Amino acid sequence: MIALFAALSLSAASAADPRLPVLEALQAELARSRTRLRLDGYEAPYFLSYQLKELRTEQVAGRFGAVTQDDARRSRKAFVDLRVGSYELDSSGRDEGSIFMGPEGQTYFASRDAPLEDDPAAVRNTFWLLTDERYKEALSSWFKKKSRGVYRADEPDRPPSFSREQARQEREAPRPFPFDRVRWRGEARRLSAAFRAHPALFDSSVRISADKTVRWFASSEGAALLTEDTRYAVHLQAVTRADDGQLLEGSRDFYAATEAGLPAPEKLLAEVSALAAELEALRRAPVLDPYTGPALLAPEATGVLFHEAVGHRLEGERQDDDKEGQTYKGQIGKPVLPAFLSVLDDPTRARQGEVDLNGSYRFDDQGVPAQRTLLVEDGVLRGYLLSRRPVKPFTQSNGHGRSQGAQAPAARMGNLIVTSRRTAALPELKRMLLEEARRQGKPYAIVIRDITGGNTNTASYGYQAFKGTPRVVTRIDVATGEEQLVRGVELVGTPLTTVNKVQATSEESRVFNGYCGAESGYVPVSAVAPWALVSEVELQRVARAHERSPLLPAPWSEGK
Q1: Which of 85, 157, 247, 389 has the smallest count of CB within 10 Å of its CB?
Q2: What value does the mean pLDDT take over residues 456-464?
Q3: Can you give the pTM of this predicted structure?
Q4: Do the beta carbons of residue 413 and residue 359 sit within 8 Å?
């Protein structure tokens, strides 16, 4: 439950909370700009918001049994959202955020880097310069937008430019941010040294990181937010080559909201051994020929498929951008997926079973509370991921306006969750897989057991396609049931075709945690999905580099 305060008395609490002077500085400069910022003969801003994000990062890394990185970084980024016009029609849009070139020869642009010290004057100075720059940009964009009306008739179905939202005021308690550097230096040495038992893996690394984000947000509508978020991660990576020169990379990634939530030392050591064994087996595995036919996708692969093929195409800004493919525009209330599938995005969910979800947050980067959002219900499209930019027929944000650092927020996924009403146990799904392969006359069927991630193209000028990078793929002989590890392929396809060929799923769901990069930067996300039986997928050969492995063995492998 979100706790709201009718009013937040900052001055009285400043002495008790050292974070508050920064928010007070933002509010003071915002009030000054709101009352006095106006160029003679031109409109004043109707909306203004300030956001400052502080990112603290602690990191330790190791290779070959030695620490290779041991550092701490701290940065602050400032973002100003300033709009001229009205909620119905304002300066935002395609021209928003473009670099204002100004008079010929102008070379100065305000820095997005904010002071690391809580000096109110220095903080205000940063936002003063950014506000001045954004006001001039907004006026320029506003006049360009109005000038288009000379040549084009008004669009009667045009949605408002900006949604009206309740101004929220909340101050979260400070979050502890422990980082046992001595422990993690030892783990970086121990885990990276364990890879030395596998000479075929010519490079490997271990990285442990911790990030803490503190966010100050204030707006002319009266919003005042102070939030904190922590995220810890362990990354294991290794590289080898097959005899034919194909580079084979493998990794294990573990995320948690707290340091205590990271895997125990014995679990991490076991994962090193499992990763090494996996890569050694892949070196010996045959290359799979291009394949079109039925496949069984592990939950992580299913999650990536729906993230790339469905989730990105339901992001609100893509529905009204002529440069986008607009796959699901105008489809509200119509079937878009098999009738047994539903998809929602729920940033308010912090965990799935024992796993912390990366895409959890309480307020988005426009000050709107995160909301559980039903996207597809029993195959029928019910909604979009929405920032404060309305998309017909919706007029309100559902708390998905997200961004990295000082970039402008846009509608993005948080925790994408796929559910199903047509389920079967995993052995039954395998039986159905082989039956479908026989029906199609295929000599074997495919199981995608692990995947590193993927990417998609949503633009109208390109092909509507997506690609995934499977890490572990096996093929099952239809006649004998023998399962064999294969390599050298990637998952490709067109989104509407592939997702509509899902035939059944498992009851079990698992989590794919990671980061997603798009127009508003890299944001942490999760996908929660089951095993999925797909009647047809396409696998293509990966580009291969015919390079030699190192000519000499590793020095430590010879005991000298």
Answers
A1: 157
A2: 56
A3: 0.91
A4: yes
Q: How many CB atoms lie within 10 A of CB 348?
A: 17
Phi/psi class of residue 341: alpha, beta or left (left: φ > 0; alpha: ψ in -120 to 50)?
beta
Which amino acid type is present at position 40?
D
Q: What are phi and psi of 503, to 5 degrees?
A: -100, -30
Q: Please check whether residue 310 is in contact with residue 499, taking contact to mean a CB–CB distance below 8 angstroms.
A: yes
Question: Which residue has tokens 């400070």?
Answer: 174
Residue 490 is encoded by which pair of tokens?
């990637």
| Domains in the chain with CATH codes | 10-56+75-171 (no CATH), 181-284 (3.30.2290.10), 291-541 (no CATH)
Cross-strand bridge partners of residue 539: 291, 491
CA distances from 127 to 33, 111, 251, 453 (A): 10, 9, 41, 37
Beta-bridged to residue 450, according to DSSP, are 472
Q: What is the pLDDT of residues 99-144, one digit of tens each?
A: 444 555 567 889 999 999 999 999 999 999 999 999 999 999 999 8
| Angle, alpha carbons 481-484-486 (nearest 5°) | 140
pLDDT tens digits, one per residue of 417-447: 999 999 999 999 999 999 999 999 999 999 9
Whether 100 contacts 132, CB under 8 Å: no
| Bridge partner list, 73 | 57
